[in-house]
């Protein structure tokens, strides 16, 4: 038979635009050995690292490998034999059947995934995927789990923080040695090192020691991490599996850009540190919860290989949202999930792929929105399909069955099937192993009485949906099974319909019911219905729609107000602008929606005046930054000087200065270029340098030369900004620079992957 059903077409299965000709398929490695334990003796001195490693292995006769990049080997022995082959990245050596003992002495420079920030007297490992191979002989792949022990010598007053239990601190005069023991098997990439001057704080929760390491001088910011206790209690209780280790440390580091869930010892970016004023808009809680959730999903059970990385990242992303539900309430949770949907959909404009994909050049490419956000959305759909109780029971079973082991998606599927008694092959095939997602449109037809029409795009998914059907006298929730692409539901009368009011299924819903009904839907008690109506109303420009959106600006939930503001921005009429200008919203997150909506009114003097007047009284850093960005996008030159004055203001993560740089880039001019160029190299802070670098891209050809230097900067975020900026220049001269990034073996995989994908979009821009 040669017939291929529509759903099995290649695009449905592997997606669109993801696989590149540089990609290869990847499978887990087979090693002849199990590594039972690894002990490392390390001395960190300036930019140098002196190391000695003892590994004990149980092997079949054959050839084993270990990774270690740019090591200078001083001594190597396996069972007394000194024979090995090393190519600067991988050691290959013969092993005997039975127990094998390996010893290696080496030196390495601090580079790649182990960074030194001299001005902060800090050294730290910074994350997946190649974390360990720059500083310890280890394996770059996650498959193998082992126990590790670290003896780390550092110069006083530095401290060395790592995984597990601190056995001993030994005074060696000018030096001090920290002895850390991680007695639970874990993948090598979960081994960490942080060296710096820290202030340490401790507390206990349910027998677990919580430790906080803040950079010296930042002790007052301890309260930024105070959700840790609550998150710890929540995850232990929700999963039914108590936190598996005795200690949980969080180390705040200047070298970090996000978080990294090393086993028992998470590294957190300094960006979490913020003052009370920033706290109205910014919170570290999501990052704290995400990294802590990884201790169960990632560290206790660990993905077997990078293609299954959603088992770490999709889970940590969803469990963060579940903590939000417990900690901040149902509406915050639903809006968090809705935001994840929007974030994922942005990426689908570039490509779609199955969550589990074996195609990549660097594993870092898989750490995208399909893995994080789509992974979380799929888990949410699964939880709703099974019910919370069965879902939790399935999670507990999965964790207990696989504790201390490596897993793939089939292990998870089987745990959920065992507990639910359901066959979940179809669910996993559609949502995890295939690309795409359901797209659903709701519209109304009249056939004497109203008929609700639900229609899916191609391909259609089997869906079980809740519809809230509201008439003048009644409101009912009706369960609808969509087994075909189109379903019609005739009704005696209808005021409005709301599809999936509790956001239980993973689907994009386009609300195309008539304007009158959308206006009625704005009064629904569920925030999802109000958000959908706000989105639907952006297609209308008459007074009724604008007034209804105006009422939503005063909504009791800030997320609804935000969405209403965005819709008014899309309408773009003077009446919509009047509505935006007549509301003074007290919640800064909602106010930010108005600030953002103003950017849609290009060259509109009234919009600019409104932004300026809001700016003059605004206290919140983030709203201020949004207003400044909008002034840049509105693009009226005479406001430039006022915008530039805000460059003097300090703010959390320098969001205000960064916004000024973006706006100045929008305004153009040689003077602005010179100013931004100077800040790219000598900005007041890391975020200023990143932002300035990014917006140099707006200046075309002339920015390419400085960007060719910035693309080699010591700060990873400046380098990735430079990659983005190079593409924005649309210059032919940018291509060879991007190619040099792709070829650089020691560049971060995420930055190389970004450069690779961007060379394709640069090619497209230039072909136009
Ligand atoms: Zn993560």
Brief sketch in words of this structure:
This protein has about 775 residues and is α+β, with helices and mostly antiparallel strands. The chain is built from 25 helices and 30 strands. The structure holds zinc ion (ZN).
What does this protein look like?
With 768 residues, this protein is an alpha+beta fold. Helices cover 39% and strands 24% of the residues. Among the domains are: 164 residues, tricorn interacting facor f3 domain (Immunoglobulin-like), CATH 2.60.40; 130 residues, Neutral Protease, domain 2, CATH 1.10.390.10; 93 residues; 101 residues, Leucine-rich Repeat Variant. The chain has 25 helices and 30 strands. The strands form eight sheets. Strands 5-8-3-2-11-14-13 form a seven-stranded mixed beta sheet, with no helix packed on it. It has a five-stranded mixed beta sheet with strand order 16-17-18-20-19. Strands 9-10-15-12 form a four-stranded antiparallel beta sheet, with no helix packed on it. Strand 6 and strand 7 form a beta hairpin. 49% of the residues are buried. The site of zinc ion has 4 residues, from helix 3 and helix 4. Its cofactor is Zn(2+).
Topology:
Blueprint: H1 10-14, E1 24-25, E2 33-45, E3 48-59, E4 62-67, E5 72-78, E6 85-86, E7 90-95, E8 98-109, E9 114-117, E10 122-125, E11 145-155, E12 159-161, E13 165-172, E14 175-187, E15 194-196, E16 198-205, E17 208-215, H2 228-239, E18 247-253, E19 259-260, E20 265-269, H3 285-294, E21 302-303, H4 310-328, H5 330-348, E22 359-360, H6 370-386, H7 388-402, E23 406-407, H8 409-420, H9 425-431, E24 439-447, E25 449-456, E26 463-470, E27 475-482, E28 486-490, E29 496-499, E30 508-511, H10 515-521, H11 527-537, H12 543-553, H13 558-571, H14 574-581, H15 588-597, H16 605-617, H17 621-634, H18 640-645, H19 655-667, H20 670-682, H21 686-696, H22 704-710, H23 716-728, H24 734-743, H25 749-767
Parallel strand pairs: 2-11, 17-18, 18-20, 21-23, 24-30
Antiparallel strand pairs: 1-22, 2-3, 3-8, 4-7, 5-8, 6-7, 9-10, 10-15, 11-14, 12-15, 13-14, 16-17, 19-20, 24-25, 25-28, 26-27, 26-29
Bound molecules: zinc ion.
Zinc ion (ZN) binds at residues 290, 294, 313, 316.
